[in-house]
Structure formats: C-alpha cells, structure tokens
Design goal:
The chain is an alpha/beta fold. The chain contains 13 helices and 17 strands. Strands 5-6-4-1-7-8 form a six-stranded parallel beta sheet. A six-stranded parallel beta sheet has the order 11-10-9-15-16-17, with helices on both faces. Strands 13-12-14 form a three-stranded antiparallel beta sheet. Strand 12 and strand 13 form a beta hairpin. It is elongated.
Length: 392
C-alpha cells in the first residue's frame, strides 16, 4: 500500500481526499467533533505541501437524493475555524463540474463537494461516476478507514482511474489494528460489549484463536447468562441466539482462550432508576440488568492488570445513567493506569465506547481510539475491506 506521506511531489496537485465526516447533528449543530479532529493531520499535511484539496465525504443516509438536512455546510464551517482558512462548499451538480472550475480563486486551497451520497451512483459503486470524480483531481487519498468496508464509488472504484494513496489516519488505524490481530504482544485481552451478540459473533470467533481472554459484558452478556440457565428478568436480550452461543463455546473448546462473563450485576427497575447489586441467582422477573457488579469489576481489572495488549469495543452497562456507568468507568480507569505506566497497548472502538470516553475526557489516555464502527468490526473479523483492497 502506498502512503501519501511518502510522496514528496504534491505542490499544486489537486488531491481528491476521501474523509468520513459523518458527525452527529442536532438542529444543524455538531454534537461530537471527534471525526473532524481526527482528519486535521492529513488536511494540515496537504496544506503544508501546497496541494489543492478537494474533500469528498458524506453525512447520514440521504438515499441518493439532495436533502438539506444532510448538507456538509456545518462541517465546512467547523473545519474553517480549525484550519484557519477559507473552505468553499460546492453546491453545483458534480456531473456539471470540471477540474478547471474547482480553484478559479487561486487563494482557495480547500473545497468541499456537497454530500457524495446525494448521488445514487455513489452507493451503487457506479464506474462512470467514479471515473468522472477521478477526472476532477490529479491523485486520490483515502483517509476514511471507517468507510473502507463500503464498496462505494468514492471509496473503492475511483482508485481504478488515478494514482491512489492511503492517508495518515488510515495508516495509523491499520497499524493499531495490526497490533491486536497480527503483531500481538501477549497476553492479549478483548472486552466486548453492546447489545447484539449476532453482530459480533464473527469478531469473537476470529479472535478466540489469537487472544488469551475474551470478556463479554453489556447486553450481549445477558444472552449467555440466560443460556447458562439464569433468570435475566426483563433485561435486554437478542432472540434466537442459542446457536451463536453454542458456536462460541465450541470454538473456545479448541483453543486456550478464556471466556469471562459477569458474576454479579447492577440491576434497576427501569433505566432511569437507582442501582442495586445482585448475584445472578437472585434476579427477579421485574429486574433489569444494567451494569456489571463489584465482583465482576474486580475480576476484569485483575485480567487487565496482567495483559500487555487490550482491545475494547462496547460499554459494560447503560452508562447514560451514572448509576450504571460504574463498570465502564472502572474498566477505563484500569486501562488508563496501565497506559500511564506504559505497560499495555490499548485499542478502543465503537460509537458508544467513544461517547463514554468523551464523558470522562480521556480520549488521549489510550494508544488508539477508532471512530470506525462497521469497518473496525469487519477488519477484526478478518474480512477484506473494499477500500483497503483497492489501495493494494
């Protein structure tokens, strides 16, 4: 894979830069700027190299139609302040654009194409659309790892028509994930949470042969707790998961990886209520499991203490209510302590995990925090990502 940082001749070159700026918006205001902050290194790198930058990105799911709700305008305005220079948003239909139209004002160094998903051809991976996009630049840079599991025109097909490179963030992301998949420093532990076990079965099965510990928490754990014969009350549970759980246990039998599940839990009568510690055999029909208990926290922390590498995807409980955020916070504190001692390599991923880490302002206390959701999980499953494959 060729990296843009290895390319010296970028002055006055028009760089088509694919980013993932799919940030959460509320009434036109950005509620989380993490993804914008993550792309600043590549933009500043290209500014210093005197390149002309054409940013290609999307927001939301406009389904191939122009929809002002999904305009990139708020992102342009935010980025303008961060890079301290004018950023122009091009609203004109992409099919009418020509390369020479993009930088008529020579003072402009950065332009944005409006939401690429306003065009149905993008998600159809249309070859003509990709070719037209390619004609707008001199070279292409993918710095959107979180979109790289999509076989879309501006992610994979475009690479067939002009010199293509991996961006700084994409390289950092792949390097971090390699350290938890192929360049592992053992013992290695995976803490995996969230609500749906079916979406992460591929990851779990792929990691069991390589990892020393798999710790399952959150709503996912309820499925296995129930499978093992315990009452989970009215807790969240995914239906028809018995075969998935059987697969996990079957895979574990053939490897030395140890599975850790909650031994005790925090329950509430509703998600906004107070917490109460309960053993698994004490759970009543009207109880909701919303966090891990103190015994489980102690056990997880003891595993983290002897780990050299850790992968964390998904919180331990319903952290939106502080009464049920203790498990996640304690896990975070334990990893941060090891990080400060430089005795662990930590990779975090998933939207909820990032939201949790932002709550305690600890983003910089981990070796790598991935904003990728689907791409992060598919890479961990061992799948070929179209956007990465296209760069090789």
């Amino acid at each position: 894979m060729n990296y843009i940082a290895d390319n010296e001749n970028l002055s006055d070159k028009i760089v088509l830069l694919r980013l993932d700026l799919n940030v959460p918006l509320q009434d036109g205001l950005i509620t989380d700027e993490t993804r914008i902050d993550k792309v600043l290194p590549i933009i500043n790198f290209l500014i210093k190299k005197r390149s002309k930058i054409v940013i290609i990105s999307h927001i939301g799911r406009p389904k191939g139609k122009v929809n002002k709700i999904f305009s990139l305008k708020p992102i342009c305005e935010n980025l303008e302040k961060k890079v301290e220079q004018k950023v122009r948003l091009i609203n004109e239909n992409i099919f009418n654009l020509k390369k020479e139209d993009l930088f008529k004002n020579h003072n402009n160094q950065i332009v944005f194409l409006e939401n690429i998903r306003f065009y149905k051809e993008e998600e159809k991976n249309d070859i003509s659309f990709a070719k037209h996009l390619a004609e707008l630049g001199d070279l292409y840079v993918n710095d959107a790892f979180s979109c790289s599991h999509r076989a879309h025109a501006s992610v994979s097909k475009i690479t067939e028509f002009l010199p293509s490179f991996a961006g700084l963030q994409l390289k950092t992301e792949i390097d971090a994930l390699k350290k938890v998949t192929s360049e592992i420093k053992k013992p290695i532990t995976c803490i995996i949470g969230g609500s749906k076990i079916s979406t992460k079965i591929g990851v779990i099965k792929n990691l069991i042969p390589r990892f020393d510990n798999i710790i399952i928490v959150g709503g996912m754990a309820n499925n296995i707790i129930s499978y093992n014969g315990n009452n989970i009350g009215k807790s969240i549970k995914e239906e028809n998961c018995e075969k998935i759980i059987e697969e996990i246990y079957k895979t574990l039998k053939n490897h030395s990886c140890k599975l850790t599940l909650p031994e005790d839990v925090l329950i509430g009568k509703n998600i906004d209520g107070k917490s109460q510690v309960k053993k698994l055999n004490d759970i009543k029909n009207d109880d909701l499991i919303l966090d891990i208990g103190p015994k489980t926290i102690k056990k997880i922390n003891s595993i983290i203490e002897v780990s050299n590498t850790i992968l964390w995807n998904g919180p331990a409980g319903y952290f939106e209510n502080p009464n049920f955020a203790i498990g996640s916070y304690e896990i975070a504190k334990s990893i941060i302590k090891k990080n400060k001692e430089k005795s662990i390599y930590s990779v975090l991923g998933g939207g909820d995990t990032i939201a949790l880490i932002n709550q305690i302002n600890a983003m910089k206390n981990f070796n790598f925090v991935s904003t990728a959701g689907g791409a992060f999980l598919e890479y961990l499953e061992g799948k070929d990502l179209p956007g990465i494959k296209a760069l090789n």
